[in-house]
Amino acid sequence: MEALEAIKRKIAGKKAKTLLKEGKIPAVLYGPGIKNLNLEVDEKELEKILRRKNSPIVLRVEDNDYQVLIKEIQRDPIKGKIIHIDFYKPAQK
Question: Which of 31, 48, 55, 74 could be bridged to 89 by S-S, CB 3.0 to 4.6 A?
Answer without folding.
Answer: 31
